[in-house]
Amino acid sequence: MQIFSIGQTKNIALYTVKNGIFQCLLEGGQTSRPVLAANDYQNSLTATAHHFAIYFSYMSTENQLSIHNLSDRNDTYRIVEMEGRTIYHPFLLSWNDHLLVFYVVGNGTYEIVGFFVGENRHTRLPFIFPYIPSFPCHNLSGHVLVCIHTQPGMVYRFSEEAGWEKLQTDSDTKIPELTEQLRQKDQLIQSIQAQYEELRNTALQYRDEAKKWYEKATR
Length: 219
Hints:
The chain is α+β, with helices and mostly antiparallel strands. It has one helix at about 175-215, and strands at about 1-5, 10-15, 20-25, 30, 35-40, 40-50, 55-60, 65-70, 70-80, 85-95, 100-105, 110-115, 120-125, 135-140, 145, 155-160, 165. The protein is about 20% helix and about 50% strand.
């Protein structure tokens, strides 16, 4: 589930059920009726806020990487890799004035590609993997930071001016500082997720009670 604040007491939740992606409004302990945002979901839902809009991406049932503006159905992009290559692990990121989606692509050997949504250009991490890498991306201090989970200690930093730089964990003095910032971000995210999970559970209890009352009243 992805949750975004749109006011002091209002939040939008995105979640999946089978091949559907749904959105609903969470407000004051109550949950609105779900609205279908996409009906061709296969896996890998990710979302981010960008320029006062919420964008989400996912792998579709047609094996396409789909990117949508939640409030504008015409603002849609699709990425299809040719020549038998497959897309894995998309990750949507708002960075400076850009909306990027990073993903793994390949067949036997794999690379991490960053696509600038709406700008028709790419950037490619300068490393070829013999396996499908797992990674998160972070917008940190004006850079994109890519941390390779499947190879601990492998961290790349990207900027428009310098391009890609590999950070050396054994000698780069910035690594401890970056690691601490990421740790603090993760703690904040976990705290927010815990609060929203409590709110969601309360909303589900209200829904179940309302359903029981309705069934009893219509007998």
